[in-house]
Amino acid sequence: MITETAAERTVPAVPAAEEATEARGREEPAWPWKDAPIRTLVQRIHQLQAERAQGFRRLEEWPCCS
């Protein structure tokens, strides 16, 4: 299991933003993770899942219906 803090520090949000901006002339939209290794993709999935779980925890703590 991966912790939130470990997930946050393992993978940058976008590995090569400058590559994505260079590909504007193509028909397909540029995806910065296209050529990333599988390990990096899996780490990114874990990071996104940790962020998602944290967001849901915050929603559960929100004092809305009192």
From TrEMBL:
Residues 1-31 are annotated as: Disordered. Residues 8-18 have a biased composition (Low complexity). This is C19orf60 isoform 2. It comes from Pan troglodytes (Chimpanzee).
